[in-house]
Amino acid sequence: MAQPHGPLSQLRRGHEELVLGLLRKHGPLSRGELGKHCGLSRTTLYDILAELVAEGAVVTATSQDAPRGRGRPAETLTLNPDAGQAIGIDFARRGLHVAAVNVAHEIVGSASEPHDADLPWEERVALAERLVGSLTGAGSGALRLGALAAIGVGVVGAQVEGTDPDEKGSAPHPAQLLLRERFGVPVLLDNNTRLAALGESIWGAAAGGQDVLYLRLSHGVGGGLVVGGSLHRGAYGLSGEFGHITVEPGGARCDCGGTGCLETVASIRAVLDAYRDAGGRAADIPELVKAVRAGETGALTLLSGVGARIGEVLAAVCNAIGPSVIVIGGELAETGPALIGPIEGALHDHVMPVSRQRVSLRRATLGEVAGALGGIALVLHESPLLSRYPAGPDLAEIPSMTQTRHP
Amino acid sequence: MAQPHGPLSQLRRGHEELVLGLLRKHGPLSRGELGKHCGLSRTTLYDILAELVAEGAVVTATSQDAPRGRGRPAETLTLNPDAGQAIGIDFARRGLHVAAVNVAHEIVGSASEPHDADLPWEERVALAERLVGSLTGAGSGALRLGALAAIGVGVVGAQVEGTDPDEKGSAPHPAQLLLRERFGVPVLLDNNTRLAALGESIWGAAAGGQDVLYLRLSHGVGGGLVVGGSLHRGAYGLSGEFGHITVEPGGARCDCGGTGCLETVASIRAVLDAYRDAGGRAADIPELVKAVRAGETGALTLLSGVGARIGEVLAAVCNAIGPSVIVIGGELAETGPALIGPIEGALHDHVMPVSRQRVSLRRATLGEVAGALGGIALVLHESPLLSRYPAGPDLAEIPSMTQTRHP
């Protein structure tokens, strides 16, 4: 997380942010021009610039406009176009997760905070801002908002595109508008579960996987797919909706408008409700986990049935698309083998026998910050998994991330 | 199909094949060298060469080895590296389908012939050879075996790859060995249903589709996927196995080793058996189609139930991967609205409501030759749908198809 920092280093960070902000606003500037704009002493400014250049945040260039033959052309300074800083934010249903990478694209840190499901967007974005602030610690390699290139945001729900090819996509999401206003940089947005799938496939349980099925069992049930080495979006942005595959024809009504969807059986609320209906008591998943660890029969029986339903759905999807890795994430996966065992059993029973030894079932490893990390991956657009994924229209504004990295 | 041809044009075709065969065997040759090898009169040879050059099958080049300054360098002739001829063969369970493209990559024709399911491979390949022969008619643009670049072959069953990355793939299929021996060209092989999906997505019902789900209801039930503009293979070559998604837990035993698979309900045999069990009489699908057209209640009720199962599976796969087009092919689709209606109904009921208006269900349009056409597409490797599809090791032998077309 954020590194400890005293008042002096805070002051220095403030000066650095000032310089980086000027370079972002004005483009290439000479040392003299920077000095006029920032009002810092020559010594302080040169000191700070030397540090920023050494870290790779700023690069020097010889000005093209300098008159020829009249002594040395003026050297200008500019933000390093090859090294953007980026923030990822996952606006989950009942909590917020942020992560950030520095100019070297190393993860600086991450932070999370739960909130009510009905928290307005203004307050969510304000909370995001505070969490991001907690990551801007002192020291080399820390996040510098002045050099921020873009923000990648995950939100709940399918980001459905219209069927009219002339439509220029739907209106911006409130989170996009508010974040852009606050940070003044492009904001890319996608389904947060798909971003978690991306995060797990780049840095997590399925790192290096070319054909990955990611399932998240949380307040909602959904997932994402990497197929043939590419993050899959689906026509109109609709894919990975494993939670809305029918498992109980004529079953409970689902938020999607259907009935008997996997989500009506395997979401956090569905599982806690079913546990209560069976006479058990658990206010949340940690309490259910305790009951499971205590060997409580009702909890084990319930999870066995839920796991079987999940495994059946996974088997159907496996037969259709043939992944080599299945990753199970989300809070419900915290119940461990009591759920994962039955999932594995039903998967084994229903997947084509020839595939049984060819698919590996794993627990997610990135935890609740997977979606925020996926948001960063979306912005950096460096992973081969994204080589064919549509880049947001905003991304064109960041030459370092589209032109330089994807010639 | 094959064009009519008399003895004289047959003789001419024989001469053309001879010349093309020599160019394929020796590489670039001068007119003089060709004359020595083929034994034809100068007039006949020059006549044939003029025709082949005019058609684009053969191109002329100035020899690099000609000594400088000693008169005109010798002109050599070579097969046009930009225009290969190709054959596609679908070795289906109970029949054989061939198609061919000429040097301009236009489809010359196609032919089919049914056979017993247990016909040995030697006889299947001999039958394929006869059918291919029926396509080598006279006239401009016809197939010339002498300029044949490669053969694309579809076979029944998943072409499963081993899990050991060091393995160089499985042993060649008997059809590959026999065809290579006979035609002396590289033979690429894939699952024939996946090739049919490719054919329909390039030239058929889903032409231009970037996200296509193809389902074939035949002696087996399977399909193929185009995802994000690429034919999808799946880890280990296992994808599109929609026929082995469980629809009746604990149901009938399936050939795959599982139970209650869609194939145990929706294959030709399963449907005819169920029809007989219900007191109906139909020896084959055309007879069932007659019963349907006569409004026979038993047939309609049966297909309604089968269609519902199919629609449920399609909905599950749709929710997972979000295609924009679903194509239904195979003999069973000949039963028309009696089957397609119930499929559509169940798809509507079980797909996410938001997707209902975003997916279009269509009948296949290429008929039984779809797989053979897909085989040709695999060889030509020109479709953007194949830009990321693994090219067979043999393909490296055909510079015109890998190096020239995919720089």
Automatic annotation (TrEMBL), chains A, B:
Pfam families for this protein: ROK (PF00480)
Gene3D superfamilies xrefs: 3.30.420.40, Winged helix-like DNA-binding domain superfamily/Winged helix DNA-binding domain
Coiled coil: none
Keyword Zinc in annotation: no
Family annotation (PROSITE patterns): ROK (PS01125)
Keywords linked to the UniProt accession: Kinase, Transferase
PANTHER family reported in the protein's UniProt record: BIFUNCTIONAL UDP-N-ACETYLGLUCOSAMINE 2-EPIMERASE_N-ACETYLMANNOSAMINE KINASE (PTHR18964:SF149), ROK (REPRESSOR, ORF, KINASE) FAMILY (PTHR18964)
Protein name per UniProt: Putative NBD/HSP70 family sugar kinase
Organism expressing this protein natively: Nonomuraea fuscirosea
